[in-house]
């Protein structure tokens, strides 16, 4: 059954049925401007803080489109016209499988100990990102012949929250245990990132558009060493 939903509500086994954001945007926009028959549209509007039944301006539509363009909300269909390429969307590498246990062995045993921070969710700050996205759209009107959202500056000053959970070290990482900080397993921390143009030694120009502060999928934290 066709539906629009947050990426965390999509199973890994459904990836072949997820429509690419390019086509999903027009389909969802048509549903919003029609009778909202597509399941999940009401939840999507709620995520954008848009009241149900109200007339949606072009700016409102851009706020909705932004979440789809970033693949935070996905269109799942019986047969996708152009299946999404998850390699283009970093966060989607964390899709869960139906076979995965909700908690798994990750939280069994001791309640705290050595470990590492592991990303499990990336969520856009809809209000602040929506304002920034709309402002960038207005500014881009001066760029004749350029498609909006085709360059990094179109996403300038948008914001997202990276959520990481403290998990056990893998077997190959056991040697790090004596140096690791100690936290409660399952503890969550949130890191706010902003999309900006900043120094990038790998770029030819010396700068690039990227999220700051930079956050790795997995991060180790050193504990205090006792001399």
What does it look like?
- With 227 residues, the protein is an alpha+beta fold.
- It has 2 domains: 3-89, no CATH class; 104-219, no CATH class.
- It is built from 4 helices and 9 strands.
- The strands form 3 sheets. It has a 5-stranded antiparallel sheet. It has a two-stranded antiparallel ribbon with strand order 1-2.
- Strand 7 (188-199) and strand 8 (207-212) form a beta hairpin.
- Helix 1 (21-33) runs antiparallel to helix 3 (58-69) and helix 3 packs across helix 4.
- The radius of gyration is 20 Å and the shape is globular.
Helices and strands, with pairings:
Blueprint: E1 3-6, H1 21-33, H2 41-47, H3 58-69, E2 73-76, E3 112-114, E4 116-124, H4 126-140, E5 159-167, E6 182-184, E7 188-199, E8 207-212, E9 218-219
Antiparallel strand pairs: 1-2, 3-6, 4-5, 4-9, 5-7, 7-8
Helix pairs in contact: 1-3, 3-4
Main sheet, how many strands, which sense, barrel? 5 strands, antiparallel
Helix-strand category: alpha+beta
Radius of gyration: 20 Å
Please bin the fraction of helical residues.
10-25%
Q: Output the helix-strand order.
A: EHHHEEEHEEEEE
Spatial strand order of the main sheet? 8-7-5-4-9
Mean pLDDT, rounded to whole units? 84
- Count of discrete structural domains: 2
Tally of helical runs? 4
Shape: globular
Number of strands: 9
Beta content comes to 15-25%
In short:
The protein has helices at residues 21-33, 41-47, 58-69, 126-140, and strands spanning 3-6, 73-76, 112-114, 116-124, 159-167, 182-184, 188-199, 207-212, 218-219.
Features:
alpha+beta; globular; 2 domains; two-stranded antiparallel sheet; 4 helices; 227 residues
């Amino acid at each position: 059954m066709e539906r629009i939903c947050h990426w965390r509500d999509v199973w890994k086994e459904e990836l072949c049925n997820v429509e690419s954001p390019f086509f999903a945007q027009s389909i969802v926009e048509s549903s919003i401007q029609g009778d909202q028959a597509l399941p999940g549209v009401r939840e999507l509007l709620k995520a954008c803080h848009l009241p149900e039944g109200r007339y949606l301006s072009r700016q409102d539509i851009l706020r909705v489109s932004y979440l789809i363009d970033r693949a935070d909300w996905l269109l799942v269909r019986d047969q996708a016209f152009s299946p999404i390429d998850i390699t283009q969307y970093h966060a989607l590498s964390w899709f869960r499988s139906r076979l995965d246990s909700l908690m798994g062995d990750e939280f069994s045993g001791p309640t705290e100990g050595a470990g590492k921070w592991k990303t499990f969710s990336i969520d856009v700050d809809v209000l602040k990102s929506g304002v920034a996205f709309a402002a960038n759209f207005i500014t881009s009107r001066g760029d004749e012949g350029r498609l909006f959202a085709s360059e990094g500056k179109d996403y300038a000053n948008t914001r997202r929250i990276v959520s990481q959970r403290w998990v056990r070290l893998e077997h190959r990482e056991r040697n790090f245990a004596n140096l690791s900080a100690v936290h409660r397993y399952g503890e969550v921390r949130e890191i706010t990132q902003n999309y900006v143009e900043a120094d990038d030694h790998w770029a030819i120009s010396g700068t690039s558009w990227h999220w700051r502060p930079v956050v790795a999928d997995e991060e180790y934290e050193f504990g205090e060493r006792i001399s």
